[in-house]
Structure formats: C-alpha cells, structure tokens
Specification:
Helices cover 36% and strands 19% of the residues. By secondary structure, the protein is α/β, with parallel strands linked by helices. It folds into two domains: 74 residues, Helicase, Ruva Protein, domain 3 (Orthogonal Bundle), CATH 1.10.8.10; 190 residues, Vaccinia Virus protein VP39 (Rossmann fold, 3-Layer(aba) Sandwich). Strands 5-4-3-6-7-9-8 form a seven-stranded mixed β-sheet, with helices on both faces.
Amino acid sequence: MAAAQADPAFTIHALLLTASQQLNGHSDSAQLDAEVLLAAALGRSRSYLHAWPERMPGPEAMACFGAWLERRLKGEPVAYLLGRREFWSLELAVTPDTLIPRPETELLVELALARLPADEAVIIADLGTGSGAIALALALERPQARIVATDQSQAALAVAQRNAQRLNLAKIELRLGDWCAPLTGECFDLIVANPPYVAAADSGWRQGALRFEPPTALISGPDGLDALRTIIVQAPDYLKPGGWLMLEHGYDQGEAVPALLRKRGFIEVTDHQDTAGLSRASSGRYRLS
C-alpha cells in the first residue's frame, strides 16, 4: 500500500494531466473540468492544486474524483456532478430538475437592473424561475424590490427555495404554476423570463450536456416559440402602465420575438446581443398610460 501511494502517477499533477487527456474530445473545457472536479473531491480550491502539484490525494478523494470523472466522460455536466453552479457571483444549488444557469443569462439581469430604480420598492416577476438564478440576482441587487418567482415544477421550486434560504434572500415569493397564471390579481413593474426556446425538431438538445437537462426547460414547440408566444400574450394583463417585459431567446429568434412583442402592443422594443455578438434577449414596454 505504501508503495502504491508513493507512485508519482497518483500526484495531483499526474491526475490532472491524465484526466484532462481523457476528457479531450468529451469536453470543450477538459483542463478546467479536471481541475474543478479534483479540487471539489479534495475539498480545496483550484489554486491549491497548482500550489501543491506533488501531493497525493487520499483514497476517499481518489474514489470520488474517479467516479465523477467517469460520469463526466459520459457527458454529464459538471454542475450536476457537484450540485452547484455560480451565477451573478452567487453559488446556486442545481439538480437535474432545473436548467443549469448560464453566463449569457446574466445579460437578462443586467437589462432588468438598468430599468429598475435602485431606491424604489418595485415589484418584479420571474417566470419559470428554475433554480431561482434570475430572481435571486435581482433580489441581491435590488433589496427593496418585491419579487415573485413562478415555476410549473414543484421540484424546481424546492431548489429555488433552498437557494433563497441559504443566500439569506428568502423574501422572494415562490409560486407554483405555469407562466403568469400564479400572478392573478397583481400587476408588476417588470416581468422577466428565460423560457424554453429550442425547437422540438432541433436534435441538438439530445446531444452533449443538454441531454441531461430537463426537456421541459428546453423544448417549446415546433419552432421553439410556444412559451415565448404564451408569455407575450399573457404579460400585459400583469404589467403596470409602462411596465417592462424582458425575455431571453435563441440566437436565431432576434427578429421573431421583437415582432411578437410589437404585435401585442409593446413599444420601445429592442433586441439585445450577448458578449459573443449573438441575439440573446428582447425587451418591450407596455403602454405608458
């Protein structure tokens, strides 16, 4: 046993090298994935790996790392392996019941914040909240706001509730229901949503990491616009005069979604690009009076 533990093949440096080589072709971020998984297995930061490359993990850490690596080689997302994902500097719990929050969705948060006064008690709705990523980011930045977050999945709402409590942002109201249905009788300054927008005919969602995420959070009818259409039709009944609707959508829906907004009577309609220059979100204001 002592000789096996002293084997240089089991040092942090060697494990990372072997794992990243194995992950090449299975991941676009092989080195990063290997580092994140090994650091988590050790209960350390990634900087520890680089500071102590000659150290050897114990048997429990080795077993954990090996199991995670095997699952990652099968395509399972790192976020699901670790049960967490960072979004807007917040560490969020995620499960296969929720979509994994993505960096490009932070654009939606930025756009919403630009239209929400920092010193006013505004009312916001986040539709299809999933892990609660958007609602929690807005709650962090607008502590005076009242935020209602809806989802049709009770399991997803349980994850959002857990995140809200752990981050001490539990004032968010979580409601079960489809899109605007749980908002009956109320009007909001801003409604935001990252709904499913992948076309059912698009085979991409059955490949790679996407196949591990809940299809109901990805697929939305033949053209990917079903959920967006529903929200755009419903939202005006729940917006204050001059209230905003902000929606994430697919890179190829930058003309269709603004057209739907204008048809429903929204004004000041704008399509917004992400940092990669791809169409990512659309916004519109409903009636000023």
